[in-house]
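Spend some time on the protein that follows and explain the fold to me:
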Amino acid sequence: MLTIRNLTHDDIAAATDLQRRVYNAIPPFSTAQFESLLSHFPEGQFVAELDGRVVGIAISLVILWDDYSLHHTWASVTNDGHFDTHDMSGRTLYGAEVCVDPECRSQGIGHQLYEARRQLCQAMNLKRIIAGGRLPGYQEHANHMAPEEYARRVIWGDFYDPVLRFQLNQGFDYCGILHGYLPTDPESIGNAALIVWLNRDYDQSRPTQLPKKELP
């Protein structure tokens, strides 16, 4: 049975191991980074648990989008992974990481993690979700085309990119390319797709608020 719940301190070792198995070259978060996320914004950190095993994670923080630009990097928006850029006065939920166990893909786990983020965005009365999405298929085309053309052709259906296509299917809009977003990502040649999902229920007259906790 698949369960989506908030990350706890007891999940850190399993979450780190998951990242190691998903990424060949991108280093996993350190224990200190996970601890920082739980200190600053525990409500925004999710795990997918299948039969008692962590098979997916989704990491988020709230930011003041105007503090960043269309050319920001993962390091700048997370302060080099310290995650102390989380700011409850912001109106944007920023997706800093999503990964799913390679052995458990095509089971709807990614969709459920994205749905948890959407529900959090609505519960907090945030305006949108923004993220920099990897482009793992770009490495095969990098010698003869810019990442902008690659992304366009994925959108048009000429190429298949597993991450960007998934995000488009989740209701996100493509907004452009973030050059040098994650230099340690060789598959994307350091690039990422800037994507956004708008909360249609956003009410600018209401403040941002933490989701109400369910009573035991």
Remarks:
- Strands lie at 2-6, 46-50, 53-63, 92-100, 128-133, 173-178, 192-198.
- The first strand starts at residue 2 and ends at 6.
